[in-house]
Write a structure and sequence with these properties.
With 142 residues, the chain is mainly β. Helix content is 5%, strand content 58%. A hairpin with a 2-residue loop joins strand 2 and strand 3.
Length: 142
């Protein structure tokens, strides 16, 4: 089964527009869930979520904070694991990945959910089609 998503247009601070590859997901942990449009980022090693999302979902994290370098600079993160459900356009068309490594952003201004490569990209054949759409095909079942 292939999941297909369209690039979405975002307005930058300078007024310009850019298209980004976004996917419809549900983040799950301990019986709680939140639905998002998240950026699928082949340049990000880890999936990142805001601290407020991790708090709501009750994510357990490692005690130590780590420095993470991103497009906005360096920030502090804690690491944990999460379940990600990739939702398709058709009801019940979804792919579930469990135990995905995640970095919880400690900066309260950070609001984006970014889907990184670790624990995700090795499970799909992912095609970025000319800034128009993204296709995800599951390689194997978990």
């Amino acid at each position: 089964m292939a999941l297909s998503y369209k690039f979405k247009k975002f307005r930058l601070e300078n007024g310009m527009y850019i298209k980004r590859p976004v996917v419809n997901i549900i983040l799950k942990n301990d019986g709680r869930s939140l639905e998002f449009w998240a950026i699928l980022d082949s340049g990000s090693d880890l999936t990142t979520v805001p601290n407020s999302v991790a708090g709501y979902l009750g994510l357990k994290t490692e005690d130590k904070e780590l420095d993470m370098v991103g497009y906005k600079g360096t920030g502090k993160v804690k690491q944990g694991r999460i379940t990600i459900v990739f939702k398709g356009k058709v009801q019940r068309q979804e792919e579930i990945l469990s135990n995905v490594p995640v970095a919880i952003m400690q900066d309260t201004e950070e609001e984006d959910v970014i889907i990184g490569t670790s624990g995700v990209f090795e499970n799909f054949r992912i095609i970025f089609n000319d800034s128009k759409n993204i296709s995800l095909v599951r390689l194997h079942s978990q």
